# Entry
Amino acid sequence: MEPTPEQSPHHAYPDHWEADVVLRDGGTARIRPITTDDAERLVSFYEQVSDESKYYRFFAPYPRLSDRDVHRFTHHDYVDRVGLAVTIGGEFIGTVRYDRINEQGRPASAPADEAEVAFLVQDAHQGRGVASALLEHIAAVARERGIRRFAAEVLPANTKMIKVFRDAGYTQQRSFEDGSVHLTLDLEPTEKSLAVQRGREQRAEARSVQRLLAPGSVAVIGTGRTPGGVGRTVLRNLLAAGFTGRTYAVNRAFDEGLTTLDGVPAHRSLGEIDERVDLAVIAVPAHRVPEAVADCGEHGVQGLVVLSAGYAERGSAGRELQRELVRQARSYGMRIIGPNAFGIINTAESVRLNASLAPESPARGRIGLFTQSGAIGIALLSGLHRRGAGLSSFISAGNRADVSGNDFLQYSFEDPDTDVALLYLESLGNPRKFTRLARRTAAVKPVVVVKGARHSGTNPPGHAVPVSRIPDATVSALMRQAGVIRVDTVTEMVDAGLLLADQPLPAGPRVAILGNSESLGLLTYDACLAEGLRPRPPIDLTTAASPQDFRDALAEALADGTCDAVIVTAIPWVGENGNAETGDGEVLAAALRGAAAGGPAKPVAVVHVEIGGLAEALAAASSTAAPRTRPTTLAGRPAATPGTTAPGASATTGTPPASPTTDTTATTSTAPTTDTTQPTAATPTPDTPPTTTPTTPGRIPAYPAAERAVRAMAEAVKYAQWRRQAATPGKVPEFLDDTIDEPGTAALIDTLLGPAPDPRGRPLAHDEVRELLGRYGIPVRPTLPAPDAEAAVAAAARLGYPVALKTTAPHLRHRADLGGVRLDLPDEEALRRAYGELTDLLGKPAELLPVVQAMAPRGVDTVVRASIDAAAGAILSFGLAGAPSELLGDTAHRLVPATDRDAAELIRSIKAAPVLFGWRGSAPVDTAALEELLLRLSRLVDDHPEVVSVALEPVVVAPQGITVLGASVRLAPPPPRGDLGPRRLPNY
# Structure
């Protein structure tokens, strides 16, 4: 929409206010500014509003709008007077307007910072969350225009509108004056308003996916008249799965006399169907898709699965077709899976939907699967079927133009039929949102991710997402921080998913190994050590062991309080005739299942070599059982079952277990972890469904190689530890607030950037860096330039001996190995000699840019950085200076804002962490001071998004205290923070 000449020329139409939103019932709508072109739409909208709603809006009977009213409500300056509309199919279903007012309630302009706000929602659309969405967006617009408060007058009988204001989470005041309720809302976002917004987002987006996966009726558009073809295949699969709803075949080429096809009603268009269709599967050529979408939208279809190809995967022309497809579907309030999708599956008994190209619907199970690739989806379905695993739901999103992995996480979070979410992703459309959703979902059920296109440097065709420049290792670290189980291959994803779906979480890293092959046991033992587990010596049952021997040994291992998990290894045993017996897999499986069912709740995995029928028999335990919800105590913590201990406690004493990387029997640790006694699941809240992690073993996963079983178990151990820690999230210590000058820093940044900052930003000079960081309690040791030997001597006299002489030329910076740094110079003579050697060896002073700095206490040199990524947001990084971080990539990362727990984990998660904790007899350094530095830097970049890059190098961590010897800071206009604004779908 473009403004007309009647609108203020100096306030252009704000197209960045346009947004697609998901409403409470899962449908979509568009929010946009109202323009002068909307006069007819406004009149038509008002005519459809009930007299009661009109009365609530105007406090008097108001049957129609006058020409003056229409002019007023469609002419805005987009600063002091703003109107927004919610549209579906191009027509208004709701409006909101604010008018800036002064203290007397009269029309005003800036600097007045209060506005009067009023809403009107069509009665047919009330209860869908329209007003709540409008309030979020009009509040964001008002803040952008310098308005800090909304005032509203509401009739006491208008309880729905009062509730919208009350539930928004903003700080507000209410009073009763002259027969109406006077409300004042402070528009500054609060923790409560943000939580309310995200809670609404979760419920709406989950509902939008649920509508796609559980339709009451499905129409396949493009069903061929003869067998074969995509449409006819989907129709056949729908019928074969036993879909419980109504099915229709649609093709405009059908003969007029054709009434049924494969036993279902056949129609030439949706208009011929005498009921509303919930889901349409579109399988027509790309050039005919717009016609099919329009037919769907005009007849009330709720969602689309577009199997058609020929979109963004075909280049720029196809990309524009794809964008237009999304715009068209959303204009009718519909969400899309695809295009170029493989389809969707829901195995719930009440639905039994297979609207996909998969010829066989998977068994019902507890695993939810999302994939951005049809080929990978086929492989995963086949692999899970071969391993005897069932699914709860499956979405193959193709080009992922609309419904994404984030939407799937929203759905999986509250889906009672899903215990584990598996995702194959090739791009992250909104990494900040993904990590937020993944963290919340992982607190109640495992999330396993394979990330494709890790090293290509580009997004897959058709994926319109922000380009992230962070390395894949950083992405992996951020996923781990959010509790995501990141694996490298789809095989590993299936391996981990099978274990997590049917086995309890381990309470620690101690693993018992038993079996009838000493060699296979030793391979398993070595694999456990390689994965950071703490295996007990393998128990060799010998090749003569019977299934009963396996059962007895497994029961004994499960009852042993010194182990947290069991891995059973099995090879074919030799019969009396000397031949290998490979056909007694069912007998052995029954023995193992019996022992697991009768013992304490600990995970069990089986490694087998060519035992016929064993894997199938182990998988034969019901995959359709109801979720085994862990009982909880009044405090919301898991209750211990008789004969076991509560997860998170020692099996023998009730004391906290050691971390997965530390043996519980060890007495010393070079790099202690921060794990403490915690429940294994987050305490349930209104937005946190109770955990559905199994507490008793069901199906026992079987693996053909020891390494695969051990790797899956190791992932379960690390995830269980994360769950224990996530139950009590960290925080930023309060004492930091007394030593941080946030307002002063903001003023300094404004001064440094100037009134017209360069969009590319600017690096700060040394003194500017010291002043900025000093306001957040981060002192930087001063350096003085030394353009000649005399200046170096004068600088040393000012700083005090001993001193260091360093080059600051980019090619020599931090390169002590090249002779560019001379330390512990005790006097003038040594300094002059070092200066001469430096210039003789490396070049002229003008090239070397030498500086003098007072010596710091000896310690460990580290590097601390913070940077802003366009897609992922602010990232805090830590490593040891020099080769460990630069050559070996031994660097850890956390998202900002970092908590005290994040800071502690950050310095302990690098491979070289033992150096900080007294490795090989050295003195442990002051890690507490280092953690505080990390928290201060995190707070700085979180408070001031203009700080786009900070590097502290080196930071010398001594046994007592730390010293920042070098620092660089770059300022730039703050990048947009979409995660803090009103909820919206990605724009097309």
Remarks:
- The first strand starts at residue 19 and ends at 22.
- Residues 1-10, 622-687 have pLDDT under 50 and may be disordered.
- The two ends are 14 Å apart (CA to CA).
- Residues 191-213 form the longest helix (23 residues).
